[in-house]
Amino acid sequence: MTDAAVETDWRQRHAHDLMASYAPPLRLLVRGEGCWVWDDEGTRYLDFLGGIAVNSLGHAHPVVVAAVEDQVRRLVHISNYFASPSQLELAERLKRITGAGDAGRVYFGNSGAEANEAAFKLARRTGRPRILALKNAFHGRTMGALALTGKPALQGPFEPLPAGVEHIDSTVEALEQAIRDDVAMLIVEPIKGETGVVPLPAGYLRAARELTERSGALLVIDEIQTGLGRTGAWFDFQHEGVVPDAVTMAKGIAGGVPLGAMVTFGAASGLLQRGDHGSTFGGNPLATAAANAVLGEIERADLVGNAARRGEQIRAAVEAMGSPLVTEVRGRGLLIGVGTTDGAAPAIGAAALEAGLIVNPINPTSIRIAPPLIVGDEEVEAFTERFAAALAAS
Ligand SMILES: *Cc1c(COP(=O)(O)O)cnc(C)c1O
What we know:
Elements: H1 3-17, E1 29-33, E2 36-39, E3 44-47, H2 50-53, H3 62-74, H4 85-98, E4 105-109, H5 112-124, E5 130-134, H6 143-148, H7 152-155, E6 165-168, H8 172-178, E7 183-188, E8 191-192, E9 198-199, H9 204-215, E10 218-222, H10 237-240, E11 246-249, E12 260-264, H11 285-300, H12 303-320, E13 326-332, E14 335-340, H13 345-354, E15 357-358, E16 360-363, E17 366-369, H14 377-393
Parallel strand pairs: 3-15, 5-6, 5-7, 7-10, 10-11
Antiparallel strand pairs: 1-2, 2-3, 4-12, 8-9, 11-12, 13-14, 14-17, 16-17
Helix pairs in contact: 3-11, 4-11, 12-14, 13-14
The structure holds pyridoxal-5'-phosphate.
Pyridoxal-5'-phosphate binds at residues 111-113, 116, 138-140, 189, 193-194, 222, 224-225, 250-251.
């Protein structure tokens, strides 16, 4: 093969061998370290997407490498007929950092969608028929999670979906109108990540807590993207001082090793009965050991505080660029949405990639930025330079 053939080969192989459900991939990545990744041609990129808010400690973090190496040597998997020390440690830790405390309980799956499937079953166990979710919300792609996802374009081809889910506007008035004592749960993302990092209206979560409590419905908060320190608190709902009945989490929990979890609070902890739900891989020793390493390091190095501080710094830097293409800067901590003039986002994303910066033009008017929680001065500086260059080139 000629050099040119070798270079294009991986794109052809991807198109030939992988299911066509994803867009053609942007680069072939072969290695990562900290906030940087390298492609097969040796080009280095500053990774400000972090595997979609997954790589909390960046790439190849020594603490994660050591924990995974050690656990692989001991036990990778045992099934849920048995318990493991790392699973017990993680469950205890999640009860603590969510604030669920003593009455909390933890269910482990392998992804965000699976965490929300567990929440769906939790809701069914109330015996109430109706479930409320928000228009434009994203809760995952499996059939139950897809039923919760408020995006008709994603749902349409796959109907019929599990019944009983109604999508309402993200306003307190819409919730007041819809909620009755036949509602099993309201599920919300505190910041709609897949919709371009769009926060709930101020005060919404507190009002939702009051209204769900009054009608006896569960309030389930989907923190799959916002959770585990990303927004400058362990969980975004903690900024609002509300206590949910359940919180789902996944992305940033285990440094990229697949793991999802649902943590229940108070009485909701008693809803699922023996035999109600399960997962072969869920909560296995490898994934939970990786999560303990990630969350332990976040705590040790105060990366929750770092997320809050660096987020402010990055938002201020983008605003200071004064680009006519940027209409607003949204989000909290290190989950940032840059609003652009209509249609500008894809070109900015492409120009950034050319400039050696990975950001995510998630729709025609939004760029999502979700760097590892370890970002420091060097990375913020490199981002500022490259993002400004991308805006200038677009
Ligand atoms: C990513 C995401 C999901 C789905 O998680 P998967 O691991 O892709 O199944 C669900 N909810 C939210 C808010 C997400 O960001």
